[in-house]
User: What shape does this take?
Amino acid sequence: MKNDARSDGRTLLAAAVIGATATVAGGRIVSRLTRGRFGESEEYNVAKVRVTGPIRRDKGRPSPLSGPGGTTADDVVEQIEAADEDEEVEALVVELNTPGGEVLPSDDIRRAAADFDGPTVAYATDTCASGGYWIASGCDELWARDASLVGSIGVVGSRPNAAGLADKLGISYEQFTAGEYKDAGVPLREIEEDEREYLQGIIDGYYEQFVETVSEGRDMDPETVRETEARVYLGTDALEIGLVDELGTEDDVEARLEELIDAAPEVREFTPERGLVERLGIGTQRVAFAAGSGVASVFADQGGDVDVELR
Assistant: This one.
């Protein structure tokens, strides 16, 4: 009986993998024909791209439990550029539900939206904070729901301090560098005051760039932006102080698009095009877990000693 059960399980898993392969291969063909716009044949004149979760350059290996995590900037930029090159597309909607993320990836998406040839509308759903707001500043208009969380115009820099633990374990720190601040912020020793000032200066520089980007993109006074003090606001309060242009639902945004393009909007979502191996790898991981034999692996990003993010 046990052998029969194992055989049935292997047969089920093999069938699932074959089915996943066929589905992915078919999706790949459709993706090439539609440039990432899967399975939709109706006419369209508005492109939509989504920015969801933490914003980063590379999302890393997805978990079979959680699926893809966060937004990969290069994917979103590619989608926006594809929409800009599409002769059918007259306007762009950037849907935002993100707490923020890495600085340059956020700016890459903002620049792509700003370069789009046509009206651009950012639409905040649950959260449009920090890096998400940085992106929104590149669009012509920003809409939100009355209960959306909007703002957090600030920068966070962090470093672990393991000096006390290193002392307890008898670990000493020795490093050979050229340049006074080359090892500023390393976690195995206490940070010096001049190093703290140096690193804080970098954070302050990012913040000033954030303020400048928002004030220019949103046509706001820089002091008004600074006075938000990196707070998040409900959509109603964000509207009152000028952080958003209008409040409304997705239907309201579409009504606005109709005014902008002088035609009934037909929205098509542009999605990233993933290779067969990547999509099959994710699919088989999920199938394996569902069959009771999957094990989730956790991978930590190997970053620098000081992490800087818009959040």
Notes: The longest strand covers residues 120-129. The chain is about 45% helix and 15% strand.
